[in-house]
Amino acid sequence: MTPPDTSAIAEGDPIVEVELPAELSAQASLGKNVFNAKCVECHGANAAGRNGMAPPLVHKIYEPSHHSDMAFIMAAQNGVRAHHWNFGNMPRIDGLTEGDVKMVAAYVRELQRANGIN
Prior knowledge:
Cytochrome Bc1 Complex, Chain D, domain 2; 4 helices; mainly alpha; single chain
């Protein structure tokens, strides 16, 4: 899977356009709150990414068959070495429990499904 060309997108701007689901499950709603507190600064509103900072999580690269929910947990707990995008390594995110990240994953999965990523 190849990331999109982001050269025409301004630094810090969203990388993808995200269609929002009509409503979120209770778990995903909690995950959205956690995402907005801990992830939005880099991954952008609605996980659309921020050019030059972090990739969109609403992208085929992060579909469940390629990056499981456990990949999200491991990324938050340990950080991630850059491997799909050229934004540098992701640091570990302090202050999140495994349960918090599971709720974030539920939020991201619901956003993905609303955008045809299954």
